[in-house]
Amino acid sequence: MQKPKGTYDIYGDKALEMLYFRKLAETLMNKYNAKYFETPIFESSSLFHRGVGETTDIVTKETYDFKDRGNRDLTLRPEGTAGIVRSFIENKLYADSLPLKAWYLGPMFRYERPQSGRFRQFFQFGVEVFGVSSPIMDAEVISMIVNLFGLLGLKGVKVNINTLGDSESRDSYRNALLDYFKPHLNDLCDDCKNRYEKNPLRILDCKVDGEKEIMKSAPKMIDYLNEESKNHFDEVLKYLDEMNIEYVINPKIVRGLDYYTHTVFEVEADIEGFGSQNVLGGGGRYNNLVENIGGPATAGVGFAIGLERLFLALDKEGIDIKELVRPDIYIISMGENYKALSLANMLRLNGFNVEMDYNNRNFKNNFKHADKLMVKFIIIVGEEEVKNGILTIKDNDSKEEYKIKYDDLIDFFDKKIGDNDEDYV
Ligand code: AMP
After folding, report:
1. FRET partner for 393 with CA separation of 20 to 30 A, picked from 16, 40, 204, 284?
2. 308 located within any domain
3. Is 110 in the pocket of ligand 1 (CB under 6 A)?
């Protein structure tokens, strides 16, 4: 039996990365007072048609649709926003005091051609904020991504930002695009001819036509913004400047999904040799989405990041999560298993990450095994140690040896490793 095309198993290093990321995301989200959400992996198909948009590639070509045994039309979620918005409305969360900042992390499903950084089941971390129409939240949401990448130590990232304006601005821009592309229709790919009819803004982010001359001199959204939309965008930039967040204004960012208004952004990996799937994440403001899905008019802004591409970026920059989650202590028991296990138990209860020898390996193999696990310290527990109550400890990096009294162990490791239960982050 083989796994389905475009999927992968999570174990070993991948599992480490995933758990490390989840914990980091949770810690960061707590700092923003964001609340964790988990919504079903499948929803009514109609939710995505309304939420993501009938004309998007996702809905027309990429969803996993099926009928259940009760003949219901269901779809594996291709993204996280629609489900969270559905939950926000169905659970009447709009009646609580807003804003609500929601975060999620889980698998998404799209029937796409698998390649590096593109899968059919992939993981997204995302945030949706409801109830703030001011540009302050566009900027706060962007700060979340920037801080997340900063915590991971990722440097080669670029924030591209653009605005689509409000409905009025977007309509006048849409008309300008229709006028502009009309005489050039024959130069466009078939998909773009279709987009011309249904959603001309999306011609601008076409992968096929994107680099053509006609794209470069196409009208720019920024010239069609009404006063209010222009102010909104200027304010977002001011907030970002004040937080020293760097960005590039990029008029080509229109995002694939139909629901965006005002600010849209994408974060791309700016790392040599990263490959074509270099958009790590993206998002924007969606002031009409809650209403479109059947709730009361509520402003929204959010983003999603693809974890596979993020891990690829970390890898390309030589950031090894294994290095960040090294076990603290490895106990070698020289026939003193009772003592060794109770020592491991005591150290674990004091916040340390402890592995030990359960199989009575010989000395040499024990050291080899400890190296493989990348442990920081090794404790040797033999007859002599038990008798004297003094343990031999080896720093596995510097190779220095210490003789420490049993009662002083915690103090010793608190100083050497750090007195916190949050070693993982
Ligand atoms: P989107 O919802 O299309 O804007 O996607 C947001 C992020 O999810 C992208 O920037 C990617 O990092 C990730 N992503 C989207 N589709 C896939 C896929 N098929 N495989 C892996 N990651 C994906």
Report:
1. 16
2. yes
3. yes
What separation, in Å, do the N-terminal and C-terminal C-alpha atoms of the chain show? 37
* Ligand 1 binding pocket includes 62 (Cβ within 6 Å): no
Q: How far is CA 410 from CA 259, 263, 336, 385, 416, in A?
A: 55, 51, 20, 17, 10
Q: Is the CB of 306 within 6 Å of ligand 1?
A: yes
End of a domain among 288, 316, 344? Answer: 316
Asked if the model's pLDDT at residue 424 lies above 50, the reply is: no
Q: What is the pLDDT of residues 380-407, one digit of tens each?
A: 999 988 899 999 999 999 999 999 999 9
Report H helices in 208-336: 213-216, 227-242, 289-292, 307-316, 321-324
Which residue has its alpha carbon closest to ligand 1 atom 10?
A: 281
Q: Same domain for 150 and 240?
A: yes
pLDDT at residue 414 is higher than 90: yes
Judgement on whether residues 118 and 237 belong to the same structural domain of the protein: yes
Residue 312 placed within a domain = yes
Q: Is 387 exposed, middle or buried (0-12, 13-18, 19+ CB in 10 A)?
A: exposed
* Whether 115 and 157 share a structural domain: yes
Q: Within this chain, do residues 96 and 124 fall inside the same structural domain, yes or no?
A: yes
Q: Give me the pLDDT at residue 53, please.
A: 78
As for how many domains the chain has, the answer is: 2
| Dist. CA 413 → ligand 1 center (Å) | 42
pLDDT over 80 at 336, yes or no:
yes
Residues 307 and 339 in one domain: no
**Parallel, antiparallel or unpaired: strands 279-285 and 248-249:** unpaired
Tell me, what's the pLDDT at 66? Answer: 96
Tell me which of 49-63, 89-103, 116-130 is least confident: 49-63
The CATH number that applies at residue 377 is 3.40.50.800
Task: Give domain status of residue 214, yes or no.
Answer: no
pTM for the predicted model, two decimal places:
0.90
* pLDDT surpasses 90 at 176: yes
CB atoms within 10 A of CB 424: 14
362 and 391 share one domain: yes
Question: Between the CA of residue 397 and those of 371, 375, 394, what are the distances in Å?
Answer: 10, 9, 9
- Domain extent for 416: 327-423
Taking the centre of ligand 1 as the mean of its atom positions, its distance from the CA of residue 64, in whole angstroms, is 16
